[in-house]
Amino acid sequence: MATEQGRRLSFSKRTALKNVVRLIPAAVVIAVMLNLLSCGEGGLLSSDDNSGSPTATPTGTTATLAYVTNFNDGLVSSFHRNTTTGVLTWSGQVSAGAKKGPRGVVASPDGSFLYVANINDDNIYEYSINSNGTLTKLSPAFVSNGSGTQPDELATVATSQTLLWVTGKAGTIKSYTIGSTGQITWTSTTAGGGLQTPFGITVHPTLPVLYVSDSTTGYVYPFNYNPTTGALAPNSSPQHSTDPSANSPFAIAIDSGGDALFIADQALGEVSSFYIGLTTGSLGALTPYSTFPNNSTSDAPVGVGIGVNTDGIEYLFTADSGTASVSSFTVTSQVIVNSPPTLVTGYTGATGLAVDPQNKFVYTANFSNGTVGQATINNGTTCTIQICANPSRSTESPPNANSGPFWVTLAQ
Q: pTM for the complete prediction?
């Protein structure tokens, strides 16, 4: 096996790629924690309910817009984002299918369209993004992902054709192409091969490889994708965390250099890391590296994201749905330096998490109080610790503490 040093990218390469952020939101289980979030209705991420969750892909270079799914109300909310202060200003809300259904949300790479997966009615909802940031439903307004598939997480990428993938809680990954009008067209379905409950999903920043986590088996699956159709083929064998008990992985983040993958385990409250092969013969393949504990096994992390501050320090953030916090780890290649992590509190049931392209701010969807959280990443002046909490704001107008915000993504 290659040494750790041999597997690391040079600092210059990592810095050049530092604005690439992968999330996922790629969450789906742990009944004990998520019963708290669902107010006793079976657990938001439990394996026996009719719910699901989200994932985000990189946005453009500015990301002046933000969108949040409201799981309980069947809505998606839109916001303007001040890229200097990080403040979000509510601009509207539209329906996104059946209540207790909207989970994953992602914008097309060019920021023109938005897609929401509804785990309750099996549809993918399609919207055009207006010049003022509000949403207009396309016609038709949705595409069926297939009866009983329970679409959950989303990822997009622009190649020779703009592509969209959707994980289905029932055991599928659907591939779609995005047309010039924003309408999506199904091209293929991936199922079997050990997939049981796929959840987290993200695309490698430089390789034609897609990663999917399975929240039942604990495995992470690397797939090569066809740049025209999005069809998936196994890249290499799926890999499990070095912790044999880490069987509840949810969202996925790829580090800024593209050589390491991190995944949060909701049951154990820990983060696992993997090497990503970047040499001929192992491009995109995963090698388990280590695990790093969160602050508590009760943290129940869902969303994860990576940011690199102005000093070149890389942080991994997790949205801790069980302990009203966001955790901040310092990262060096596949190694997490501070574990347990630094915590910032005040996030009631945080599930989704997004880092802005400028690596200045972190946003969370706070399921338990109907808000979206805003935080500043260490900048050496206004925030001198790893992450500083800012005031949150309601996702709906009028404010609704029971709207159930689940995921947040940025656009344009």
A: 0.88
